[in-house]
User: Which sequence fits this backbone?
């Protein structure tokens, strides 16, 4: 069963705009991670936020975590065509190293 | 740096045949995982191994088996393939620290006819 659920399922924006993706989960977590998947490739880790953190930045990425609402958001600022990919959140469900992935958000950035 | 190597990259297989998907790492990470990715269902964990010599079942283990004879290799076997096992299979690894990210191979696209 899915622990994390991303929203929206698909998002289309223009280059330069910001893209926001949301993730909701069901049980308590140790950490939440965001991954990116380009078409035909494996997932690539983007950023990890621990349960005691509220916000984290990495380049053009900003991740927030609200454990009271069991939700997280991934913001990509000033998007580029190269950001076109699927984005997944993953949680450990408090069970150690076994991650549970959501179904993903497909982002399309047009130039 | 190769990271994780999966083979084959794609395969078409007749139902009932036995198939082993290979996964090799050069990162010396203790934990390794097998996922399947299906449209609309995301990634689902099949089996995992926290260290050489141990394995565990994930969310969808039926019809699959794994072994972990050493740190670097984690093969996934379909003993008798069925069409519902048509999917893209990803191998991943991580350190055993719960705050370690996972690293993925580029997948094996498997079609069972």
Assistant:
């Amino acid at each position: 069963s899915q622990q994390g659920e991303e929203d929206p399922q698909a998002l289309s924006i223009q280059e330069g705009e910001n893209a926001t993706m949301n993730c909701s989960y069901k049980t308590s977590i140790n950490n939440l991670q965001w991954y990116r998947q380009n078409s035909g490739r494996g997932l690539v880790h983007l950023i990890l936020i621990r349960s005691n953190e509220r916000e984290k930045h990495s380049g053009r990425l900003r991740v927030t975590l609200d454990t009271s609402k069991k939700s997280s958001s991934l913001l990509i600022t000033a998007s580029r065509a190269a950001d076109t990919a699927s984005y997944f959140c993953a949680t450990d469900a408090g069970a150690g190293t076994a991650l549970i992935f959501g179904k993903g958000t497909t982002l399309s950035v047009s130039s | 740096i190769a990271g994780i190597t999966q083979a084959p990259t794609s395969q078409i297989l007749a139902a009932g045949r036995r198939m082993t998907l290979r996964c090799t790492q050069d990162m010396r990470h203790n934990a390794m995982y097998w996922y399947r990715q299906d449209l609309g269902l995301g990634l689902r964990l099949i089996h995992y191994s926290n260290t050489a010599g141990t394995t565990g079942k994930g969310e969808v283990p039926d019809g699959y088996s794994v072994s972990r004879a050493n740190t670097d290799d984690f093969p996934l076997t379909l003993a008798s393939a069925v069409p519902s096992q048509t999917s893209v299979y990803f191998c991943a690894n991580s350190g055993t620290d719960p705050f370690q990210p996972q690293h993925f191979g580029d997948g094996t696209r498997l079609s069972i006819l």
Notes: The radius of gyration of chain B is 13 Å. Chain B has a mean pLDDT of 94. Chain B touches chain A at residues 4, 31, 33, 35, 40-45, 48, 50, 58-59, 90, 92, 94, 96-107 (CB under 8 Å).
